[in-house]
Amino acid sequence: MKPPKSPAPLPTADRIAAYIRDADGRVGAREIARAFGLKGGAGKMAIKAMLKDMAAKGAIVKSRGRRFVGRGVLPPVDVVEISSIDSDGDLFAKPAEWPFDAPPPSILVVENVGRGLALGLGDRVLAKLVPAGDDAYEARPIKRVNRAASRLVGVIESAAGAARLRPADRRFRFDVVIAPNDLAGAASGELVAVEVTSTPRHGPQRARVVERLGTLARTSNLSLIAIHAHGIPHRFSADAEHDAKVAVAAPLGTREDLRSVPLVTIDGEDARDFDDAVWAEADTDPANPGGWHVIVAIADVAWYVRAGKPLDRCAFERGNSVYFPDRVVPMLPEALSNGWCSLKPKEDRPCLAAQLWIDAEGMLKRHRLVRGLMRSVARLTYTQVQNAHEGRPDDVTGPLMGVVIKPLYGAYRALKAARDGRGTLELDLTERQIIVDREGRIAGVIKRPRYDSHRLIEEFMITANVAAAETLERSAYPCVYRVHDKPDPDRVDSLREALQTLDLKLPPDRTLHGRDFNRVLERVRGGPHVHLVNTLILRTQSQAVYSVNNVGHFGLSLRKYCHFTSPIRRYSDLLVHRALIAALKLGDGGWDPTADPDMDKITTHISMTERRAATAERETVDRFTAAHLSDRVDAIFPGRVNGVSRFGAFITLDETGADGILPTRHLPQDYYDLDEAAHRLVGRRHNLALRVGDQVNVRLLETDDITGSITFEYVSGGRETGPGGRRPSGGRHQARRQARKRK
């Protein structure tokens, strides 16, 4: 009998540092353990401990996601950004890409080489980097990569002499002045777009007004900040507007006539365009007992928006519609989005329809995609349909109960069973809706209701999307997949460590599935850690994007998935429609066989426009919410911790969903440590801990509707981490306020 093999010895810190320096890219504990022949969890945990110690001593640098690189190693040629100017006028830079927690090395821009480029703050240059001592470099500029951002949006503030700009971007830290003859007539308090004309080494930047956007006396103009700050196209070309206005009804031609099918649209009360309609019936095929026949009909946008034409160029540039509390920046002109491409009731409309047959367990047995002409019998809302389902029909839904609504819910129950069976990730996320009055002011913030009628439409749309992806996968035409990759292993490692503090476990990475996250979520549902765990699992997930390379959709637990159901507001769906029309030979408006578009470039662009829209929408909600709370400064609100950092905690208010910062300077006086593994801030003296998900009470100190920022002061809440300190109450401002009252 052979004696058992001895475990491989742990490598020394020097050997690990050498391995990291020589590695191609960033590495983590998993790769290091494998490289040195360490097997099992014990070896990996030992390596983790060594890496943590080496990073603390500065031997290596820790990047985001628990990855490491050699300390102070920059390539010989790299892009750097001018970040500061000292009192002697010397320029200092930082690497343009520096995804590490540790501060970047000091980079001095060599004066006699860089002067000819007239460099200023924010400029990026390709430079030769020469080591110049401990953690320092000299940069010898080769060429400018780009100038600093030249266009800013902000509010004019009057001052002696030149006016000043109050930038809307909270990340912009430079002073900007505008000479009187560069104001273009703009007055104090006016929202403007400016072009930065000079970035001197000393003093503020200089700019001139290039567009006056209106006064902020009307809250509705807050959405204009995001539109202009993010460069969201909001004006259609004259040719595109003309083509939309002269559009006419599509003929029946070779389309399937679906006008006798009682299709209905189901949307929110405030919806203005209707791009999907649904219908269901019990499948009469004896080979499919308990099964269902479903039709999902989608507006035939490809009939009106032809590849390469003005409407198409505008739609591609926008990539998608953008939704603000008070307005929509649509992907298509209103004459189409609210006209011929909107499935209005009692009007003939062209469509692409997915005919779907599912079994009693909700599995898709077969499908057929057709080009048709439909006629919606009713425009219904989610609330109407839910009330009817619960026994409270109205004059519209009453006659539709037997032929439309009951079959829809029957098919939904089958589809929900399939969803539950495949383990779709089920995060408990609250969506809030801002109610805006006719003057553009916030009338209230409500929790958006979530009914089975919402889920019904979601499952119908998901099934139609799967059918479209399966159809295109078998064709010669490219499919723009909606892909959602598996979570990054390092993020999962971080999540696993955090869950261990709550006695919760995840299986190994190689077997990780959406249902594994669901089991964890189910264990904390209704308990004190539900908010913490939901937040951590959400942050672990990858970002969904568009791609012609299919890696599946992890969140939905689907191997093939694309977006087919909203071509009015998403360019990705329009591309899918064109490919289907060409693949199935459904007539005009399909893929142009003579063109050879760069699909990687297209999918990268529409993924970018989606992120741009999401950022603009989120920032605008922040601005509206800050404006809404501006007259409640000094009030106390309940909220929850939704994030922590070295400089404070991020708080979400229960009442409005407003997000703001609680800086450490507005916490009870103490020294606070960031416990990354447990996602909390901990005070050393009083043992006050603020952990993600903790309930707190905070005082509103300041709001800024231009940047959307909100600042809080601690009042109470959180938790004590252990004995040894009295529980503090209130922040420093509160202590000063009480002292003044005693006087």
Question: Would you write up a description of this structure?
Answer:
The protein has 743 residues and is an alpha+beta fold. The chain has 6 domains: 13-70, Winged helix-like DNA-binding domain superfamily/Winged helix DNA-binding domain (Arc Repressor Mutant, subunit A); 77-146, Beta Barrel (OB fold (Dihydrolipoamide Acetyltransferase, E2P)); 151-217, OB fold (Dihydrolipoamide Acetyltransferase, E2P), CATH 2.40.50; 238-482 and 551-615, no CATH class; 489-535, no CATH class; 633-742, Nucleic acid-binding proteins (OB fold (Dihydrolipoamide Acetyltransferase, E2P), Beta Barrel), CATH 2.40.50. The protein contains 17 helices and 34 strands. It has a 5-stranded mixed barrel with strand order 3-4-5-7-6. Strands 8-9-10-12-11 form a 5-stranded mixed beta barrel. α5 packs antiparallel against α16, α10 (401-422) packs across α11 and α12 runs antiparallel to α14 (530-540). The longest helix is centred in the C-terminal third of the chain and has 31 residues, at 599-629. Residues 738-743 have low confidence and may be disordered.
